[in-house]
Design goal:
The protein has nine helices and 36 strands. Helix 4 (about 340-355) runs parallel beside helix 6 (about 380-395).
Length: about 475
């Protein structure tokens, strides 16, 4: 009996819903697409169609909630310095075309262009993506020969082809995402500002005589391609991540190559080294080389300490590394961390890579974590921070090393870090008393070396890192073929 009553109530309820919504369903199914001639005002909530050549006759806005569809054979032409602002939706179906000739097209708020067809932007025009997005679906094509500006709230999603000709100037302050099927072909000027970000899952090509200037975040994900026939410039403070780094022969680098286990069977040596930063001021590297120094580990950058002291490249890094390399001194690099979380550590590592990637580095790439607040962290947290930093280095083909003192290694870190990764031990003494494994020993901070005014840290490396790293093709070095 209860089941019968429940069934009856259900039928009554469904009938009531049908009576209520049937007119709306009927109305929705009978909505007609209104032919648009480029001059008739667009009514709120209406849908319009363009199935032939239509010229914009005056400045127009596609209001929010309005849909304009360019169908097969349709062509919307913006000419005569007219301005079209899209706050609603502009759909370009296969076979449809949007042409921008001596005009300006702007997307604002949640305005959207969804293209399965063609967008042609000629010279002396501007496309502003101030808000909303341009979505290029697989099979679509967007050819831009003028200004393409993506503002902070604007986005481009490219599953089709975005072709930027030699006269194009693209500035990305918002976001660009290239899908696996997507292609961006840059033959003009392509700039990513400090707030801009590009994620490449498909194909990005920089053509000859063209330049990509990255001051923001540019990521090439695994399986994606970045073809450079022109120039790629990563400015100070930018982040460039390429998750497809290989050992130089085209082979992906297995993570186990990045641990201390790689060094277990290596013969022991004693090579003399120093580590320096801007605190050593001007260094005469010719004199340093003549003094018998084999290697130098150079500070490349430090993390974000405070608003007054943001993450920054060491002011003498390039001067130091270029001076050392010019005088045939092998180099490693280190980053001084202020990370308080794994997320911050990843950001530090990405910045670090953007600073060092143009140089030949034959010693490890070092994470220096030693602030007083780090000493108070739990072993789990400081270990997570270190592993996050190392993960980014490994993903980008760099051999990682931890710089730390005996107290940190024994009392702060989880032992799996020192058991897994190469260690640079800081213990200023006549003999080290740390009982764990280490490959470089910093034995004093009061060394004297010709070419350096004042005191400098002195080190001994027990591994011939240049030979090992080259043999295995690490640090993006070309592997030695045996």
């Amino acid at each position: 009996m209860k089941k019968t009553i429940k069934k009856a109530i259900t039928i009554i309820t469904l009938t009531a819903l049908l009576i209520t919504y049937l007119p709306l369903i009927s109305s929705a199914s009978s909505v007609q697409m209104i032919q648009w001639d480029g001059k008739t005002p667009l009514e709120q909530g209406a849908s319009y169609i363009i199935d032939s050549d239509v010229w914009l006759r005056e400045n127009f806005t596609v209001p929010e909630g309005v849909i304009v569809t360019i169908t097969d054979g349709g062509n919307l032409l913006l000419t005569r310095e007219m301005k079209l602002t899209v706050r609603g939706t502009l759909i370009i179906r296969p076979g449809g075309t949007l042409e921008i000739r001596k005009a300006e097209l702007s997307l604002r708020d949640s305005g959207t262009i969804v293209s399965f067809g063609r967008i042609l932007q000629y010279m002396e025009t501007t496309l502003n993506i101030i808000g909303g997005s341009v979505n290029l679906h697989d099979g679509s094509e967007f050819i831009s020969s003028s200004s393409l500006l993506v503002y902070p709230s604007g986005e481009i999603h490219a599953a089709g082809a975005l072709m930027l000709t030699a006269s194009n100037e693209t500035v990305i302050t918002g976001a660009v995402e290239i899908a696996e099927s997507g292609v961006i072909s840059a033959d003009g000027s392509f700039s990513v500002t400090p707030n801009g970000r590009v994620v490449n899952n498909g194909q990005f090509t920089i053509h000859k005589d063209s330049t990509l200037i990255n001051s923001g975040i540019f990521t090439v994900n695994e399986g994606a391609k970045l073809s450079k026939f022109g120039s790629l410039v990563n400015t100070t403070g930018s982040i460039f991540i390429d998750r497809n780094r290989t050992d130089g022969s085209g082979r992906r680098i297995p993570p186990e190559k990045m641990t201390a286990a790689l060094l277990e069977d290596e013969p022991l040596v004693e090579l003399r080294g120093i580590d320096v930063s801007h605190w050593q001021f001007t260094i005469d590297w010719e004199k340093v080389a003549a003094s018998g120094i084999d290697f130098a580990i150079i500070r490349a950058a430090r993390g974000h300490h405070s608003e007054a002291y943001p993450m920054i490249e060491d002011t003498r890094f390039r001067e130091n590394i270029e001076g050392a390399l010019e005088n045939n001194i092998d180099v490693g690099v280190y980053f001084y961390s202020y990370a308080r979380s794994a997320e911050e550590a990843r950001g530090e590592a990405e910045f670090f890579i953007s600073v060092i990637e143009e140089y030949e580095i034959t010693y490890p790439v070092v994470f220096d974590i030693e602030e007083p607040f780090h000493e108070k962290m739990s072993a789990d947290l400081i270990t997570a921070i270190t592993e996050a930093f190392f993960e980014v280095l490994i993903e980008n083909g760099y051999y990682p090393m931890l710089y730390s003192n005996k107290n940190f290694l024994v009392n702060v870190f989880d032992e799996r870090i020192s058991d897994t990764y190469a260690v640079w031990l800081a213990q200023w003494a006549s003999e080290p008393t740390y009982e764990g494994e280490f490959q470089i020993w910093q034995y004093t901070a009061k060394g004297r070396v010709s070419g350096i005014n004042g005191e400098v840290d002195l080190n001994i490396s027990y591994i011939d890192f240049p030979e090992v790293l080259r043999r295995h093709g690490l640090n993006r070095l070309k592997p030695i073929l045996i």
